[in-house]
């Protein structure tokens, strides 16, 4: 199944190269391109892409575009592709509804791999950025999201620990000798209990509560 994608970036040369890189394997079809936040929001509403891939620094602001597209539900998933490694930008993008935060230094092959996961609902953030965001959120005052980890069952804890380590549903299922669909069901329950919008937020909550203690927890 071809993944339909909206690309928003205000640099024409980069945008054109990105479109070519995405479409060259036939796995993606770019249904629209935009150069500003307003245009991205309008085209997402018109085209209803599987993924809206948004730049941070385009006119109108990428964070603004993320918030508006996510709130409107006009894209299956929203992802950021940017050069910005600022802690506050990463944290705000995730809070605004982005499921992935991808740095522009990735290869075309890695980007396609990440976006195929995003289309399946899998969150993505590099370990380096995840650590920076955790530090930023921990030093920014009271947590914005409740984290009732005590409500998790032992099985839910085990799954969340693996997800917090960066494992996909499939990898977590293999590690625990479960079916992938079972892990997906557990993750839905876990995110509900933690009031997390996505896997990234759930993982950050786990990191903050349990730190690097593999046995950690409630």
TrEMBL record:
CDD domains: LuxR_C_like, REC_NarL-like. GO terms for molecular function: DNA binding. The modification 4-aspartylphosphate is found at residue 55. Residues 145-210 form the HTH luxR-type domain. Residues 4-119 form the Response regulatory domain. SUPFAM superfamilies: C-terminal effector domain of the bipartite response regulators, CheY-like. GO terms for biological process: phosphorelay signal transduction system; regulation of DNA-templated transcription. Pfam families: GerE, Response_reg. Keywords: DNA-binding, Phosphoprotein. The keyword Ubl conjugation does not apply. This is Response regulator transcription factor.
């Amino acid at each position: 199944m071809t993944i339909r994608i909206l690309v928003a970036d205000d640099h024409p040369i980069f945008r054109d190269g990105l479109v070519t890189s995405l479409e060259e394997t036939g796995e993606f079809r770019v249904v629209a391109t935009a150069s500003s936040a307003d245009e991205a929001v309008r085209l997402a509403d018109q085209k209803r892409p599987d993924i809206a891939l948004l730049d941070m620094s385009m006119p109108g602001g990428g964070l603004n575009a993320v918030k508006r597209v996510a709130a409107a539900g006009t894209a299956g998933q929203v992802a950021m592709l940017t050069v910005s490694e600022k802690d506050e930008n990463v944290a705000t993008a995730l809070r605004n509804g982005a499921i992935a935060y991808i740095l522009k230094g990735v290869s075309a092959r890695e980007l396609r791999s990440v976006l195929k996961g995003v289309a399946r609902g899998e969150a993505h953030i590099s370990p380096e950025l995840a650590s920076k965001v955790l530090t930023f959120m921990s030093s920014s005052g009271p947590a914005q999201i409740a984290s009732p980890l005590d409500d998790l069952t032992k099985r839910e804890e085990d799954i969340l620990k693996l997800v917090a380590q960066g494992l996909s549903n499939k990898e977590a299922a293999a590690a625990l000798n479960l079916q992938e669909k079972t892990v997906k069901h557990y993750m839905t329950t876990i995110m509900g209990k933690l009031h997390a919008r996505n896997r990234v937020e759930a993982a950050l909550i786990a990191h903050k509560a349990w730190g690097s203690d593999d046995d950690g927890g409630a």
